[in-house]
Write a structure and sequence with these properties.
This protein has 114 residues and is mainly alpha-helical. It has six helices and three strands, in the order αααβαβααβ.
């Protein structure tokens, strides 16, 4: 029990605002920020999601139709990124803009609830 309390205290001591600021700092290369993000995204809040951020890469993109994300499923943004890259159909600059939007949002995952 002591170990569990120690872990809980550590998680509660994490300064999410400082993490968000670091992820939004464009002075740090995107690839480095994204790798760091992947390490802590499960500690970041989850958000409800329609089709919002994906319209950055393609206005007609659908989490279900394009990436097989079922309604009410929770998906991390790094998992979605891997699906985007795997599909290899989107402009790389727009994908980078999407990553920047995610990093600045402070969310680590979303629940698809169109």
């Amino acid at each position: 029990m002591k170990y569990i309390n120690s872990v809980k205290n550590f998680i509660n001591s994490i300064d999410i605002d400082k993490i968000k600021k670091t992820f939004a700092d464009k002075g740090i290369p995107l690839e480095e920020r994204w790798e760091a993000f992947k390490g802590v995204e499960n500690l970041l809040p989850n958000k409800s999601y329609g089709d919002g951020e994906l319209t950055i890469i393609d206005r007609d993109v659908s989490p279900y139709d394009d990436f097989w994300i079922e309604r009410y499923n929770t998906t991390t943004y790094s998992d979605l990124y891997e699906r985007i890259v795997e599909k290899n159909e989107y402009n790389s600059e727009l994908v980078k803009q999407w990553q920047e939007t995610i990093l600045a949002s402070g969310y680590g995952s979303f629940t698809y609830d169109w």
